[in-house]
Design a protein that fits this description.
By secondary structure, this protein is an alpha/beta fold. The chain has 17 helices and 23 strands. Helix 14 links the parallel strand 11 and strand 12. The chain binds pyridoxal-5'-phosphate.
Length: about 500
Amino acid sequence: MASEDIPNGFTGFSQRRPGFQSAGDALRRSRIGSDGLVDRDSRGFRNTETQAARSGWQVPNAVKPEPQTQKEQGLWGKSNDFFPADMRKYLTVPESGQSGPQFNYEELSDIPETDKRWSWVQVDLGAIHHNTLALKQLLEPGVKLMAVVKADAYGHGAVRCARSAMSAGADYLGVATVDEAVELRLAGIGAPILVLAEPPAATIPLLLAYRIMPSVYTAEFAVQYAEAADSIGLRAPYHLKVNTGMNRIGVRFDEVIEFMRRVSFHRALELVGTFTHFATADAADTMEFNIQASHFVETIAEMRAYGIDPGIVHAANSAATIRYPEVHFDMVRPGISLYGYYPCPETYGMVDLVPAMSVHARITQVKTVPVGEGVSYGLLHRSGGFTKVCTLPIGYADGYRRGLSDRIDVIMEGNKHPQVGAICMDQCMFEVDLRTRRTLGRLEPEIGDEVLLVGAQGNAVVTIDEMADLLGTVPHEVCIGFGTSRMPRIYS
Ligand SMILES: *Cc1c(COP(=O)(O)O)cnc(C)c1O
């Protein structure tokens, strides 16, 4: 089949006319090298040192054009323009008689993710180390810390975050599912891991093979787990989950003694810890919290009175760890605060947390919109006529929640600018007010300029906590939205 006949839009691809210059060629030429601008990197991005440092943007050595051979000239024309230097490594020049270029698919798969789509999440592992230390400083000596790394460490990457927290002294890891625990083991992490719920019985072989402790609250699971372990000469360690009032999972606090009587006959079962979870540790009102706390204290005392050693006693999530030292017991279980977000306004200022996640994008289009014209779905935002409307390739499918539309700012070169119009699935717009040119300095946004959607630059800050407040939700949901989306995640 002649290349012209390939029904995919690339007809005549191998036979570009001499002198032909595509729009992409023209753009690249105008942005790289030849325009004499010194503040551009090899990809043509205007990229100040601070921006580059913040974004972790790595600039590879520019690919040097090599002299062309006769054969290449014959196919591609006489000038380098017909075979741009940055295309060389991605394809082989066809042998004579072949009709099209031969692409190198390995090289193609190495194109950096942040080059393929101009939006990404950056995670600062140093912040997680710092936050772990800051939380540990709230604890009496000897109190353990379980780093809760469920949901891929709230979208920050479970394996990397677990390692950072452990290097700062975390003793235990908490996950939601057996698969999450197996992922940590396969990465070579040896710390004790607790699944914070009772998993299906089908996972028992995995628990034993990978030394993963389950939470237990049904006698059926306890016995199956113990029998499976015993049959191969292993112990069956577990933590008992006590329901003290949240009514999600657990043995009800006033049925714990009876439950322990039912299962304790099994010699393989080993109670390593006893825990509960608070429903209102992050609420302004403290009454319900106090009721749950006293149910738990009484249950532990009762177990001891009956000669049952509860093992490691634990209850506190981030909010309780920060607000209520009296419920630290033997171990605390912070999640959200490890990643640098405050579980509730009551905790602001009570501990020094550094947000680990920042969200970045590059401008994909800049335009002036005549006064009165609308922007984005519904045309709900109207142009004042004195702005540049800039488009970013990030939307609610990337965790940039639609409910934030027209209510949040983005940061460019240390200044805040309002996001305008409805946030779309994959894109959104923001506006640069040209009347502030005098006070803010240079205000000529261009395609490729880097923008921060979450993070800090100069005095400008946009936080996950602020977004959660605006949306009437918790920061957990907002950071997981960004971090588990299709955006690439890079580490610093
Ligand atoms: C998720 C979770 C935590 C951590 O809660 P944060 O609010 O993120 O600190 C602690 N314990 C249990 C049982 C959990 O499910």
